[in-house]
Amino acid sequence: MEKIIACISTPLGKGAISIVRMSGENCLEVAKKVFFSKSLDYENIKPRYMYLGDFSFDENLKEKCMMVYFKAPNSYTGEDLIEFQIHGGIIVTQKVYEKLLDCGASPAEPGEISKRAFLNGKLSLDSAEAIVDEINAESESELKASLILASGKLFEQVTSMQTNLTELLADIEVTLDYPEHDIEETVKEKIYNKIKEIKFELDKHIENSKQARFIKNGINVAIIGRANVGKSSLLNALLGEERAIVTDIEGTTRDNINEHFFYNGIKINLTDTAGIRESKDIVENLGIERSKKAIENSDMVIFVVDASEQLSNEDLEIKKLLENKIFITVINKSDKERKVEKLENEISISALENKNIDYLKEVIFSSIIKNQINFNEIILTNERQLNELKTCYNTVLELENAREFSLDVISMLLKQLWNNLGKITGNTENENIIDLIFSKFCLGK
Ligand SMILES: Nc1nc2c(ncn2[C@@H]2O[C@H](COP(=O)(O)OP(=O)(O)OP(=O)(O)O)[C@@H](O)[C@H]2O)c(=O)[nH]1
Ligand SMILES: [Mg+2]
């Protein structure tokens, strides 16, 4: 019998309510010692029914609260589970939790609640990970991608692939047991066709997930240019707030400034940098080094040039730094008389007058996100899942030559593929990944 665990499942802080949970067989026995309600007869307790009553710390000290009982297997963990909904104060929540420990429950490890759900077949590994991503989602796109996964779409597809593989393995067994029937070629043909189907599916997911990094982490954009061209003004214009200091003195920005905004549900991470120029100032030179680092770390660069001045050697030097980068050339200060020559693929804006800023946002977005993101399809934002999927894909490539192999070799490869698919959903014996994944959960989840 698993021990009874208890945890605080809402963030500790002041709020309307807090939830303290308890899971494990016989957790009702613990509840009996602390929760009393006129309408509650423990012998005939109704599952999924809110009881209003008193949580008793001792004879004199009581807290009015609600209790719900979920009877196994119809609960989040698949075990008997009880939730107390109490007033959302830090001390009262802790006291309820401690009282449950005093009465026989043990503290839950981070992720233990969800781990039990997984072990009891309530949750697949990929859905569990999707829930973590859902909780941590910072952008709408990340949330959408995690909701599809949490709904079990990947689990369904992977499980169906595994079922197909099991059938093929059974066919091989039969062929090996009755070699006189000479059906080897037919079986090999069947395997070949199934493998082609699986390859198509895996390929689709890998292809769809190419933009996943941007959905999860956003697009990193460095604003680069020589001093005084209006980089900080552009940052402010894109953000729609006066975040960075702007002056007409060259070298105003000395250290990178990181801020973000959202466009089409995608997070755009901006880095405003120190203007790049020859300088004897140590602080400024350090800042310039950081600008160069920002270029390296970015997915794309906005190269800002001043419209009212001719291109200088500094501009050209900076452009050289961008040779292997995706970049947009932005001609700023378009409100002034133009002196700069026409540049390739330029976008003319005025940060000061907010001209063409929305168009620039669209160009930033579309230089990275090439295809429309289809949120009805599976997008693997989770690196572990994607890596497992790629491993499967490699085995599928080997299996494509199935016709040339002996049935023993094919059988071995099919089992390998079955196991690797299982690592995505947790349908495998490997305890290490399971422990690793659930340790990333927050306490009380
Ligand atoms: N007319 C006009 N002036 C601008 C525009 N954008 C910026 N400026 C002015 O240009 C000067 C420099 O602007 P900043 O945004 O501080 O330039 P920066 O590139 O961040 O400069 P450093 O941090 O020193 O490298 C300020 O006086 C701004 O008001 C614009 O679109 N039009
Ligand atoms: Mg600046």
Please specify the SSE layout and strand pairing.
Elements lengths: L4 E4 L6 E9 L3 H8 E2 L14 E6 L5 E9 L10 E8 L1 H13 L3 E2 L4 H8 L5 H12 L3 H11 L2 H25 L6 H25 L3 H6 L1 E7 L5 H9 L17 E7 L2 E7 L9 H16 L2 E7 L6 H9 L5 E6 L13 E3 L8 H12 L14 H17 L7 H19 L5 H8 L7
Parallel strand pairs: 1-7, 8-10, 8-11, 11-12, 12-13
Antiparallel strand pairs: 1-2, 2-6, 3-4, 4-5, 5-6, 9-10
Helix pairs in contact: 4-5, 6-7, 6-14, 7-13, 13-14
Q: Which term fits the overall shape?
A: flat
**Side-by-side strand order of the widest sheet:** 3-4-5-6-2-1-7
Low-confidence stretches: none
C-alpha Rg, in Å? 30 Å
First-to-last CA distance: 21 Å
In CATH terms, what is the fold-level topology of the largest domain? Rossmann fold
Let me know the average pLDDT: 90
Order of helices and strands: EEHEEEEHEHHHHHHEHEEHEHEEHHHH
Bound molecules: guanosine-5'-triphosphate, magnesium ion
Range of strand content: 15-25%
Q: How is the main sheet built?
A: 7 strands, mixed
Number of self-contained structural domains: 3
What is the CATH homology-level superfamily of the largest domain? P-loop containing nucleotide triphosphate hydrolases
CATH class of the largest domain: Alpha Beta
Query: Can you name the CATH architecture of the largest domain?
Result: 3-Layer(aba) Sandwich
- Helical residue percent band: 40-55%
Helix run count? 15
Tell me how many strands there are: 13
Instruction: Find the structural class using helix and strand composition.
Output: alpha/beta
What's the short story on this structure?
The chain has 445 residues and is of the alpha/beta class. It has 15 helices and 13 strands. Magnesium ion (MG) binds next to helix 9.
